[in-house]
Specification:
alpha+beta, 2 domains, 2 helices, single chain, 52% helix, two-stranded antiparallel ribbon
Length: 98
């Protein structure tokens, strides 16, 4: 009987540690993401309009490798003379200077 109680105590202590670890990791990731967002835009001002991207990577996979000005010209027709393009942690603000 004492072996069974010992096994139950061991199992519950491991679950408690695992739960605590998961909660701590989630809190860390949340605060880190908020910190990164604050560092990128400390005044909280909105960015110029631009194409929507995926979470975390943004428009990283949609950026053209060859002749990027063609895509930027197309986006300027849609979003105006000044627009933003966010890819991963980099931010590109394009201004049409014609």
């Amino acid at each position: 009987m004492s072996n069974v109680l010992g096994a139950v105590n061991l199992l519950t202590s491991n679950l408690s540690f695992t739960s605590l670890f998961i909660v701590t990791a989630l809190v860390y990731l949340f605060t880190r993401s908020r910190r990164i967002a604050y560092e990128r835009n400390p005044k909280g001002l909105p960015l110029p309009p631009g194409p929507k991207g995926l979470p975390i990577v943004g428009k990283l996979f949609d950026r053209p490798i060859e002749k990027p000005w063609l895509i930027y010209e197309e986006w300027s027709k849609v979003y105006g003379k000044v627009y933003s393009d966010v890819a991963a942690r980099s931010l590109l603000i394009v201004q049409n200077c014609r």
